[in-house]
Amino acid sequence: MLVLDAAETRAALPWGGLVTALEDLFAKGCVMPVRHHHDVEVPGEADATLLLMPAWRPGAYMGVKMVSVFPGNQTRGLPAIHGSYLLSSGKTGELLAILDGGELTARRTAAASALAARYLARQDASSMLMVGTGRLSANVIEAHASVRPIRKVAVWGRDPKKAEATAEELDLGNISVSVATDLEAAAREADIISCATLSSEPLIRGDWLKRGAHLDLIGAFKPTMRESDDRAATRASIFVDTREGALKEGGDIVQPLKAGLITEAAIRADLFALARGEHPGRTAPDEITLFKSVGAALEDLAGAVLAFEAKRGKV
Q: Is 52 in contact with 36 (CB distance < 8 Å)?
């Protein structure tokens, strides 16, 4: 059995191969049961949460991501979130590999946004604004730079010191990196805007988006959360990773839907339709596009299979 720690998981998931692996599995499809959420009692503390995300391709591979969230860990100096991915044979059920769940999630999330950008961002997109300074930020920037000719990146965060730290940690070769102090000004200039935050209020305004801009919304994974306003939803051509997930969990889609500002028909396509060639994606140079992702077990499975086969010399 193969066991990959965080560094080994990251090394086994290069952006080019991972984006292609996601595209291939979105085109082929797989079985994705509803996510399992369970409350776990912890005596004397707040309840913990156990999250299970299964997916499989019949006769090939099956896998499940197991994530635990223990709020009380902050008093013990431990991370609140732990995760692992278990990959098994789809023929025998034999456990084949265990991957670091956090690293797999970060890489596949960024790769999904990069896959969307391959269809939705302008071919000549060269400037990017990264809104957010968490673990995902560097991954998202690197992933987009692998599919578009990014030459300039600006990083914005509520805490300028964290934005500076994120910018300093980035090693992007010839790509210039700066810290954005004026969010509106930076958004108005960017070809691609990626948001990976825990915001409950809109950060990006639709009126800030220039013609041809691509807005990539990764955070706001609950219906009560938002990273963009109603104007962005009504002004842009909307695309999602999965329709079911976005319509249920993505606040940037759910809220304008409930307000009657858009209908479900406003969602032009999901990654399944894009990968299968059922929708072309961007259709005009000045079109404004919006991609909302909430994550899918398919993405974890695609990444885990890629890492396993690479380590076993199959690719």
A: yes
The predicted-structure confidence for 145-177, as pLDDT tens digits, reads as follows 999 999 999 999 999 999 999 999 888 889 999
Q: Is 93 helix (H, G, I), strand (E, B) or coil?
A: coil
Rounded CA-CA distance 190/194 in Å is 10
- State how many domains the chain has: 2
Beta strands per DSSP E along the chain: 2-4, 36-40, 48-57, 61-69, 81-89, 95-100, 127-131, 152-156, 176-179, 192-195, 214-217, 237-240, 267-270, 289-292
Amino acid at 84: S
The radius of gyration of the chain from alpha carbons, rounded to an integer in Å, stands at: 19
Is the Cβ–Cβ distance between 203 and 255 less than 8 Å?
no
Please answer whether residues 137 and 164 qualify as being in contact, where contact means their C-beta atoms are separated by less than 8 angstroms: no
Q: Which amino acid is at 279?
A: H
**Residue 35 shares a structural domain with residue 128:** no
Same domain flag for 63 and 121:
no
pTM: 0.94
Summarised one tens digit per residue, pLDDT across range 206-250 is 999 999 999 999 998 889 999 999 999 999 999 999 999 999 999
The answer to whether residue 55 sits within a structural domain is yes
Residues 76 and 92 in one domain: yes
End-to-end C-alpha distance for the chain, whole angstroms: 18
Q: How far is CA 48 from the centre of its chain?
A: 24
Q: Vertex 294, ends 289 and 297: CA angle to 5°?
A: 125
Packed helices 15-28 and 135-145: angle between N→C axes, nearest 10 degrees: 80
For the record, the structure tokens of 279 come out as: 């929708």
Print the domain residue range for 284.
Answer: 116-295
Q: What is the pLDDT of residue 35?
A: 86
Angle, vertex CA 107, rays to CA 128 and CA 48, nearest 5:
115
Average the pLDDT over 298-305 and give the result. Answer: 98
Tell me which residue of 91, 37, 41 sits closest to 222, measured CA to CA. Answer: 37
On whether both 120 and 100 belong to a single domain, the answer is no
Contact by Cβ (8 Å): 48, 40: yes
Residue 110 lies in a domain: no
